[in-house]
Every structure is written in structure tokens, then in C-alpha cells.
Amino acid sequence: MFFIEILKVVFLGIVEGITEWLPISSTGHMILVEEFIQLTASDAFKEMFFVVIQLGAIMAVVILYFNKLNPFSPRKSLREKKETMSIWYKVIVGVIPAGVMGFLFDDWLNEHFYNYITVAFTLVLYGVLFIVVENRNKKKRPEVNNFKQLTYRTAFLIGIFQVLALIPGTSRSGATIIGAIILGTSRHIAAEYSFFLSIPVMFGASALKLYKFGLNFTGTELSLLIVGMVVAFLVSLVAIRFLLRYIKNNDFKAFGWYRIVLGILVLGYFAIFG
């Protein structure tokens, strides 16, 4: 029985590691997958698990970008350290909107929006938006091509877009990337800034879920959580590198079409079998 639960968690970790970074909604996919692969655990544990497993994925960003995000590196000049701190200041500005709204409405959002109908609707809606935004910006040159050009105003506005991701199926990376592109950033900067925003957002969300759940883990629960996080971390290393290579020569419309097709399939499946 325990072995079966481990296999379930490994699969969930793979799904999390891929979907956390591609703009197709990790939470949405996790909710949908859980409809078919249900963990044998309490509802409280599963609610916490589907958030905290994302810490594994976030650690992949920390590892891959450690030098770029480390303002205390002895190998950096004073100017480079200041530039690194500037990135962190812009990240802090960007997480304020989602941090405030998430803290205030976490329970309410869980109660009203964690269901397949919401996920399917937001998958389709933001899939359409990706296609529309990419078509609209096809001949436009981005105004922001590095973090020096990213202003605090733009960072805050991207953070407002991130608030949309509190609704399951939206995709945190998808919302921030769409917002960043609309506001004139390059796809590369949009993706990297989305990665960096995830660090404090997911640490904060995980801390909140762990606080509400408490630290009274059984041995089985702790094992499942650790395995899920480790798998999500390893898969995320691959997914992040893939996305950065992909956007060098491609836009995000393929992800938009994927979201639309998946959303329609989800609605069709639950209409027939739900």
C-alpha cells in the first residue's frame, strides 16, 4: 500500500515539476490529476501537499540562478552586487499584490474555486489570451530586454497580473508572463522574472499551508511530502532549461492551444462521467 502511494506521489511530482514553469497551470493540473490518482490521506494533508510540493520546484530556480541572485558573492564587484539587490527589490515589489490578496482570501479561494469547472474555464480563457497577446505583439519590439530596464512600476504591475493566478487553472507563470509581455518586456525577461517571483510567493504560500496544517506529520505523510518535493525539484531542472531554450525561437501560442484543448477535454470528460 505504501509503495502504491509513493508511485502516486512520484507521478504528481513529475506533473508539478513540468507544469510549475510552463504556462499551463501547475495547480490546475494537480487538481485534475488528483481526480484520477487520489492519495490515501486526509483532506487537510492533501490541501497542504499540493502547495508545499511546489517548494521542490522552487528550489530548482534557487540552484540554477544562485549566482545571479546572490548579492553576497565574493566574485561580484560592488556594482554587480547592487544590480543583484536591485533585482531582489523589484521581486519584492512584484510579490506584494499576490502576497496581500493570498493572505486575506486563501481560505475563501480554496472553498469556491478549487474545482474542475474553474480550472477548465481558466485554462481556455488564458489560452485564448496567450494567442491574442502573441498575435498583437508579433511585430512589436520589446522595450525591456534586461533587468536594468525593468522599472519598479512595471514590476508592480506584473505583480498585479500575478494576483490572477490565485484562481486555479490560471497559472502563476502564465499570468506573470502575459502581464510582462503586455507591459513591453521580452519573453526571456518575462520568463526569468516569473521564475524569481515564484521564490518568495511559494515560500510564503507553503509556510501558510504548513502553519495551518501544523507539524504533526505521520511518518508516511512526511515521506510522501519529501518524495514529491525531490521529484518536483529534479523534473523542474529539466523543465526550466527547456522553456528558456524554447522561447529563444518560439512564442507562447503553442501553450495557448494546449490550454484550450485541455480545458475543452476536461469539461467534456466531467460532463459525461462527472
Describe this structure in words.
There is one protein chain. The protein is an all-alpha fold and 274 residues long. The protein has one domain (2-273). 78% of the residues lie in helices and 0% in strands. The chain has helices at 2-19, 26-36, 43-52, 54-64, 66-69, 78-113, 116-136, 152-163, 172-182, 187-213, 219-249, 253-273. Helix 2 runs antiparallel to helix 7 and helix 7 packs antiparallel against helix 12. The radius of gyration is 18 Å and the shape is globular. The model has no long low-confidence stretch (mean pLDDT 90).
Keywords:
274 residues, mainly alpha, single chain
Question: Topology, pairings included?
Answer:
Blueprint: H1 2-19, H2 26-36, H3 43-52, H4 54-64, H5 66-69, H6 78-113, H7 116-136, H8 152-163, H9 172-182, H10 187-213, H11 219-249, H12 253-273
Structural class based on helices, strands and sheet pairing: mainly alpha
Q: State mean pLDDT (0 to 100 scale).
A: 90
User: Which strand-content bin applies to the residues?
Assistant: under 5%
Q: Can you tell me the number of structural domains?
A: 1
Number of helices: 12
Strand runs, count: 0
**Helicity range:** over 70%
- Which segments are poorly predicted (pLDDT under 50) over 5 or more consecutive residues? none
Based on CA atoms alone, the radius of gyration comes out at: 18 Å
Shape: globular
Order of helices and strands: HHHHHHHHHHHH
Q: Tell me the distance between the termini.
A: 27 Å
The biggest beta sheet, please? Answer: none
